[in-house]
Amino acid sequence: MFSSIRNFLHRHRRKLIVTGAVFGTVYLLMSYAQKRLREWQEKEAKKFFEMTRKKQHFESTERTCNQTILSLSKIVSESILSVLNTEEIVQKLKENPENKLLLWEQMKVMIFTRICVLVYALSILQVTLRVQLNIIGGYLYRDSIHEEEPLISSELQAKYLSLCHHFVGQGVEDLVKQIEKAVKRVVEPVSLKKKITLQEVERMFWSIQTILCTDTSEGDPVKKMVHYLVQHTEITDARLDTIVKETMDVLESDEITTVAMSTVSRSFSTVVDEVANLFAVKSAPTNKNHLEMVEDHVVTNGALKLGAKVNSFIDVNKVEIHFVKLLPVINELITKNTCKGNSNIPDLLTQQLTLNDKLKLLGANIYEVFSNA
């Protein structure tokens, strides 16, 4: 029996050796493949965990950013309305003074300056804070995944974020002075007695924006955000100086300038939409045979539809209102909740800017760059 087995093995030794080699090779390959698969699975699981952790950290940064923006936007708006206080002029006009024409002239300039400063200030604040907070967020994420010495301490965070406080005070005053000059060039020549259209109001805002964009003496406010942020402070801390220089590079980039100019233009469009509603209301018929409720008016593509049962349209762009009569209701858009959604222009602009997709994407890109650096 043993001899037959021995003979069998001897006769088929080559086949058995080859077969063993094949099975051995297959076993080794399977073991190697399983090891590589486990390593890949562990790598993917770690990558997924890191992505989830990073996403949660970014979302937390985004919430902090929105809360900070809403808080500081309120302070900036109040600062602007305090510097450009129309209430004092309104009270004087109620007393019917001899210089009421002069007061009305001051009033028209101040109202348009108020709106323009709000547009620029809130846009600059949104862009600057998103840049700052996402740079900080990127640094903090890197600190959270490395056990080395922190890249940025709590004290350094406080110093860095306090840079924007200058804009709330002196920065706003500088912005008011610059924008007021542009407003005077556009608005002062317009007579209070003149009947103006919505297109003329829109043209005024466009002209003011154009003057500021081409300002060669003081510079475009959008392109000098660095001035409002850091050029008033002497920085001695080396680490803070590095972060500030990085921030300056970001704020001076073409991408940031393009986004900031886009938000300014969009904000002016929002203001014009609200003014269009004023023209619509002013042109609305009061005769009950035509319309029972003013609220039923719908403004669509520059036209006012007078209720569902009436086929006639009024072209809002052709409606004319005396400039002097338009000024008080425009002023109420700023100070009272007469805008859509029972809001006012400062709150409306803040909400719109906070939800702006371009600004959100900008913040996400900055966070990604500084969290991976």
UniProtKB/TrEMBL annotation:
Record's keyword annotation contains Lipoprotein: no
TM stretches of this protein: 16-33
InterPro entries for this protein: Peroxin-3
Swiss-Prot/TrEMBL GO biological process terms: protein import into peroxisome membrane
Source taxon at top rank: Eukaryota
Keywords: Membrane, Peroxisome biogenesis, Transmembrane, Transmembrane helix
Gene Ontology cellular-component terms listed: peroxisomal membrane
Pfam families named among the record's database cross-references: Peroxin-3
Gene Ontology MF terms: protein-macromolecule adaptor activity
Biological function: Involved in peroxisome biosynthesis and integrity. Assembles membrane vesicles before the matrix proteins are translocated. As a docking factor for PEX19, is necessary for the import of peroxisomal membrane proteins in the peroxisomes.
Subunit and partners: Interacts with PEX19.
Protein name: Peroxisomal biogenesis factor 3
Organism: Parnassius mnemosyne
